[in-house]
Design goal:
Length: about 350
C-alpha cells in the first residue's frame, strides 16, 4: 500500500522550475544521441579528496618516516603549519602558525622563532647547522661540506655526509623527498615540483650520491613527504606533454578525473557555457600524481620498493594542517623537510 506521505520538494528544483529550467541527469541529456566512431571513449575516474583531520593548532607537529628510528644517528622530519607565532596568513585565528620560510609577508623575527621551536620539537642539537637553498625548480643538487653554503646559493637538492648539518627543503604543495644511506651515513633532500620532477632531480640526485659517497642503491632509504596529491593536482596538456617526452611510464602518472560535485551532476544546465568545444572547463580534468612520479624515479635509481616510504598527505585537502600554495593562491607560508646526521 503506497504511503500517504509526500517527499518535501527540493529547494533547488523549485528554484529551477520558477526560472523555467528543469533538472536533467547526464543520461537524459545524452539519450538518443549516438557516439560518432571518431570520438574517443573517455573513462574518467573519481579520486576522492582526503578528509581533513583535526589538529592541535597550538602544538608543533613533526611528521616522521616510519622505521627510520632504527638509525639513532639519523635525524629527520616534515613540519606542518601548527604551533608557531606567525599571524600573517590567518589573522583571525587565535593560535599562530609555524611559517618556516623567509617570505615577504612574515617578519624575520617570527621565522627565526618558528625555526627554533621546530628544531626543538625535532630534537636537533642546538649546535646543528640548518642549511637551505634559494629554490628555482631545477635539477641542481649541491654538496654541503665543512663550509656552509652562502644564502644566495641556488638549487633544489642538498646532500652531505658531514655530521652536525641539517639539510632543509621548503615546500607548500611541491613534493619533498628525503634520502639516507644507512651504511655510509650520508643524506640528501630534494625539492620536487613538476618542473624538477620532469628534470629527474630525485633520480639524478641519487646518482650524485653514488658518485660522491659511493652509495649503493640497496643501502638507501627514502621518504616522500606531504605534498599536493593526485586528487587535487589538476594540470594542463603541456605538463602531460613534458612528462610524455621524458618517461616511458608517463601515462601511468596522469588521470582524467571526473567532476564529483553533486550539484553539477544533478543540474548540468546551470553550468553550460558559450565557450567552443574543447575550451570549456566542464567535464573531466587532467590530474598528475607527483608522489608516484617521484616514487618511480627512486625505483629507477635502484632503490627497493620496500625502502621507500610515502607519507601520502595531500597539502591541499588538509590545508588546516599544511601550507598550500594552490589553496591560498600563493599567499601562504612554507614548511621544512629536514634530514641530517647527528654529530
Amino acid at each position: 500500500m503506497p504511503s500517504s506521505r509526500t517527499a518535501s520538494p527540493d529547494p533547488i528544483d523549485e528554484l529551477l522550475t520558477q526560472g523555467e529550467l528543469a533538472s536533467s541527469p547526464r543520461s537524459a541529456l545524452s539519450r538518443g544521441r549516438k557516439r560518432e566512431p571518431s570520438e574517443p571513449k573517455l573513462k574518467p575516474r573519481v579520486i576522492e579528496p582526503q578528509r581533513a583531520r583535526r589538529v592541535a593548532k597550538s602544538r608543533v607537529e613533526i611528521i616522521r618516516a616510519s622505521g627510520w628510528e632504527a638509525w639513532p644517528w639519523l635525524i629527520h622530519g616534515f613540519s606542518t603549519r601548527t604551533g608557531g607565532i606567525t599571524t600573517a596568513y590567518r589573522p583571525d585565528q587565535r593560535s599562530g602558525e609555524l611559517n618556516l620560510g623567509f617570505t615577504d609577508t612574515d617578519t624575520r623575527e617570527n621565522v627565526i622563532e618558528n625555526r627554533r621551536r621546530f628544531l626543538k620539537a625535532l630534537g636537533a642539537p642546538v649546535d646543528m647547522k640548518l642549511v637551505t637553498l634559494k629554490q628555482i625548480h631545477s635539477s641542481s643538487v649541491l654538496t654541503v661540506g665543512e663550509h656552509e653554503l652562502a644564502p644566495s646559493c641556488q638549487g633544489d637538492g642538498l646532500m652531505t655526509n658531514q655530521p652536525g648539518i641539517l639539510l632543509a627543503i621548503q615546500t607548500a604543495d611541491c613534493i619533498p623527498v628525503l634520502v639516507a644511506d644507512v651504511r655510509k651515513k650520508a643524506v640528501a633532500a630534494f625539492h620536487a615540483g613538476w618542473r624538477g620532477t620532469v628534470k629527474r632531480i630525485v633520480e639524478s640526485g641519487v646518482g650524485k650520491m653514488r658518485v660522491a659517497f659511493r652509495s649503493r642503491p640497496e643501502d638507501l632509504v627514502a621518504a616522500i613527504g606531504p605534498g599536493i596529491a593526485a586528487c587535487c593536482y589538476a594540470v594542463g596538456e603541456d605538463v602531460r606533454s613534458e612528462f610524455g617526452s621524458q618517461f616511458s611510464y608517463a601515462a601511468d602518472l596522469f588521470h582524467e578525473v571526473s567532476d564529483s560535485d553533486p550539484v553539477r551532476q544533478k543540474y548540468p544546465m546551470l553550468f553550460l557555457t558559450a565557450r567552443a568545444p574543447g575550451h570549456s572547463n566542464l567535464g573531466p580534468s587532467l590530474h598528475l600524481d607527483l608522489m608516484e612520479a617521484n616514487r618511480r624515479q627512486l625505483l629507477d635509481a635502484g632503490l627497493r620498493a620496500e625502502s621507500i616510504m610515502v607519507v601520502g598527505d595531500c597539502t591541499r585537502c588538509q590545508s588546516n594542517r599544511y601550507f598550500s600554495y594552490r589553496t591560498e593562491q600563493g599567499f601562504t607560508g612554507r614548511m621544512l623537510s629536514v634530514v641530517g646526521i647527528r654529530g
